[in-house]
């Protein structure tokens, strides 16, 4: 493999992304949580209700796919792409933070 000058930068950015993805969700102001909830309600709940009978069941079932913050973000990106929800990356992040605060609590 041939190393280029930009490779160390790319490696550091990748490492920083992994560290941030593993960090617990920060505390959120109530108005921010309301905005996050609106995104989940608009783009996630309908599909999860159709598939599981209850939207919350997708997050709380014993055989859920998501066990880490990185897996949660990847699943949200996948759903966004597959459903054509049109979420921007910052909106995907807001959904991830909301779901972590409400259901996953990875850092606790």
Written description of the protein model:
The protein is mostly helical and 108 residues long. The protein has one domain. It has 6 helices and no strands. The chain has helices at 7-22, 30-43, 45-52, 57-60, 69-83, 89-104. It is globular. The N and C termini lie far apart (41 Å). The model is unreliable at 6-25 (pLDDT under 50).
Quick overview of this protein structure:
This protein has six helices and no strands. With 108 residues, it is an all-alpha fold.
Helix vs. strand class? mainly alpha
Question: Would you count the extended β strands for me?
Answer: 0
Assign an overall shape: globular
Average residue pLDDT: 79
Helix content bin: 55-70%
| Poorly predicted tracts of residues | 6-25
Largest sheet, if any?
A: none
Radius of gyration using CA atoms only: 16 Å
Features:
108 residues; mainly alpha; single chain
Q: How are the SSEs ordered, and which strands pair?
A:
Elements: H1 7-22, H2 30-43, H3 45-52, H4 57-60, H5 69-83, H6 89-104
């Amino acid at each position: 493999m041939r190393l280029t000058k930009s490779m160390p930068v790319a490696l550091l950015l990748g490492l920083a992304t992994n560290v941030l993805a593993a960090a617990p969700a920060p505390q959120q102001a109530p108005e921010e949580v309301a905005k996050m909830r609106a995104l989940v309600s608009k783009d996630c709940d309908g599909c999860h209700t159709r598939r599981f009978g209850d939207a919350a069941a997708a997050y709380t079932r014993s055989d859920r796919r998501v066990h880490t913050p990185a897996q949660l973000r990847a699943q949200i990106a996948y759903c966004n792409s597959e459903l054509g929800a049109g979420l921007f990356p910052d909106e995907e992040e807001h959904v991830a933070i909301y779901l972590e605060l409400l259901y996953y609590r990875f850092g606790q």
